[in-house]
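The records we work with from here on pair a chain with its fold. These numbers are not coordinates but entries in a learned vocabulary of local backbone shapes. To see the layout at work, look at the sequence and tokens printed below.

. . .
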Amino acid sequence: MRTGAARIVGRRTIGRSIVELALAVPPAFPEPRPGQFVHVRVPGDALVLRRPLSVADWDERERVLRLIFRVVGEGTARLAALPVGAAVDAFLPPSTGFPLSAVRAGETALLVGGGLGVAPLIFLARALHARGVRVKARIGFACAEDVFGLRRLRAVADVELYTDDGSAGAKGRVTDGLGPEAAFHAAFVCGPVPMLRAFQRMFRGDGRPIYAALEARMACGAGACRACVVPVAEGSALRHRRVCRDGPVFALASLHVAGVPEDGSPDGGRGWADGGGFV
């Protein structure tokens, strides 16, 4: 685990209360992988807990991280209000990322994201595309005002857009029309727990590799406090694994999704398009 003083080099609002923050990180900061998150300390925040924020992209040459989060409380409001040039303390936990090796060049990867769960899929789509993988993405939001990442995704993927109210793309959920007949070699999913449950039911026993990135409320972010454990099947046993260190990416078939709390997302996982990602 390495911490460092990152510097804000860009900030913009990209949806209703959704902010993209660009952070330049020092040379000692490890290179992130798609699916990982960065734990950020909010300057001046009375709370000691850091905020886990999804890595939406990474510029290796400039060493700039792009983080996407929703403003849901005092801490994220403070972070969103910091000026360009401000320093923030950030570290990359020793967490898992999406296994890019699950799909080979020339094969098809299916990416499915709801709401803030779309954020880590932007980085993933670009990384897969660079490896010669054909990328199909299904992304869902509550309404047109919440849509983000569409331009970046379309540059590297075939994208299907859904909104709850039909104000952008097709009206419905990202899982509409999906089933075992869907053409892909591996799938990567990030979104609210109800969406993960539906996806798991659809593809139970399918056999193809399917991975899910989970969100969780966490304290230390280093695996010590065990505040973010989720039930995972390992053989015939059910083990509790830490989202911050053993995850946040897990094989979807191994997750005991019924035991994963829905209150990890900002809205308690109410709408399929409103959760996902980290806060």
